[in-house]
Write a structure and sequence with these properties.
The chain is mainly α and 225 residues long. 83% of the residues lie in helices and 0% in strands. It has eight helices and no strands. Helix 3 packs antiparallel against helix 4. The protein is elongated and about 115 Å long.
């Protein structure tokens, strides 16, 4: 019996030692996992801090894109109004090279009104629906857009700021998060671009024919008066 007790005590001590070793191994593994998780979290924190550093740069590039937009794309709405004012009473086109301040003020005012009332629709479509963007991604998009628009302005080529921005957003999204790029939204945008060219041309032609017919019918009455 004494021998059996000694053997049982020995086995119990051995089992307890094995349990302690297993517990220590589990604790060590949990410690490694916790350190790994903390390292990943710290990397995420570092990236978040780095992302916030792009905020002032993003403000500057956004202002740069607005400036470039005013030098190229904004003339689409101001140019017809300026051409009307460029004709004198004799119907001859004047050779003024400077843009009148009144045209600039009217164009800037209408641009701001459109941005504050309806601009959020396009901003949401480009900035959110195509692909979720970080500050660094948005900075790259704005900087590339400004470069392209400035280059086109120097070469006297009218381009669309929206078209360039969508292309830049798509390129950055395919590099950073290709699985999150919404190709359905991109397909709708491309389809609208294809349809807008012939549709706008046909609509403007119809309106021009109507206005010309209206003014032609008014000419005899003006001649009689």
């Amino acid at each position: 019996r004494k021998k059996n007790k000694k053997i049982n005590n020995f086995l119990n001590i051995k089992e307890s030692n094995e349990e302690k070793e297993n517990q220590n191994e589990n604790q060590n593994q949990q410690g490694v996992l916790q350190r790994d998780d903390s390292d990943n979290f710290s990397d995420h924190q570092l990236r978040s801090v780095a992302e916030y550093e792009f905020i002032p740069l993003l403000v500057l590039t956004s202002a740069l894109v607005s400036f470039a937009h005013g030098g190229n794309d904004a003339e689409n709405g101001i140019n017809p109004f300026y051409m009307i004012l460029s004709y004198n009473r004799d119907g001859n086109l004047t050779q003024e090279k400077s843009l009148p301040m009144s045209v600039t003020v009217i164009g800037a005012t209408t641009l701001i009104c459109g941005l504050t009332t309806w601009g959020y629709r396009v901003i949401r479509a480009i900035g959110v629906k195509i692909v979720p963007m970080s500050f660094s991604m948005a900075f790259s998009v704005q900087f590339a857009t400004a470069i392209v628009i400035f280059s086109a302005t120097i070469w006297k080529i009218p381009i669309s700021t929206t078209c360039i921005t969508v292309g830049c957003v798509t390129g950055v999204g395919l590099v950073e998060q290709p699985k999150l790029v919404n190709f359905v939204v991109l397909g709708k945008i491309f389809l609208c671009w294809l349809l807008s060219f012939p549709f706008s041309g046909i609509l403007s032609a119809i309106l021009f024919i109507l206005w010309r017919a209206v003014f032609a019918s008014m000419e005899p009455q003006q001649a009689q008066t």
